[in-house]
Amino acid sequence: MATDDNLRAAVAGESQANRKYAAFAQKAEEEGYAAVAKMFRAASEAEAIHALSEMRALGAIKTTAENLKAAIEGETYEFTSMYPGFIKEAEQEGNNAAKRAFNFANEAEKVHAMLYQKLLDDLESKPEVEYYLCTVCGNVVENSAPEKCQICGASAKAFKNVG
Q1: I need a surface site. Which of 88, 113, 126, 146 has the fewest CB within 10 A?
Q2: What number of other Cβ atoms are within 10 A of residue 31's Cβ?
Q3: This prediction's pTM
Q4: Cα 160 to Cα 4, 137, 143, distances in angstroms
Q5: Average of pLDDT values for 124-151?
Q6: Are residues 134 and 155 in the same domain?
Q7: One domain, residues 103 and 80
Q8: DSSP-based three-state secondary structure for 31
Q9: Is residue 163's pLDDT more than 90?
Q10: CB-based burial of residue 47 (10 Å sphere; 0-12 exposed, 13-18 middle, 19+ buried)?
């Protein structure tokens, strides 16, 4: 169906715009442009609203169990297929910044898949857990920030509680 293809393309575009505008807002804030940062943040959130609406129209948001399975599948694809190729190409091209970014993401995706699987396996007990995000590499850990990130080596100060 053409409309489903259009919805998938729209979700991808809106999602990219969401992240791009969030990054632009951060940079504007760093440079002292408060009004610009606010507008980028507002647009970033608007793009997220658009993507969520399109995902609903596509039927891409299902039960929590189905969503966890989809997340595991997506994360597993990233660390088994997508990122290894990206890392190899970045290495061949001598692009160390890209290689570092891809390596961090690859290792974090493994953790994400494991944590999703753990939640899926224990879904009915509705576990109580806190998550801490490494703001350097995207690693996620349960219950408390470690002294040092197992992926990138950042200190506990680099972790933020995300609930």
Answers
A1: 126
A2: 10
A3: 0.89
A4: 37, 12, 11
A5: 96
A6: yes
A7: yes
A8: coil
A9: no
A10: buried
